[in-house]
Amino acid sequence: MREQYFRWLMLRVIGGTSSWTKLCRLLDGMEFTYILEMDANRAEDGIDLRYRFGHERGYSFEEVEDAIGRRPCTVFEMLAALANRCEEQIMDDPAIGNRTNQWFFEMIDSLGLGGMDDRHFDAREAERTVVRFLNREYEPDGRGGLFTVPGIRRDMRGAEIWYQMMWYLDYITYGRE
Question: Can you tell me the distance from the alpha carbon of 111 to that of 71, in angstroms, rounded to the nearest whole number?
Answer without folding.
Answer: 24
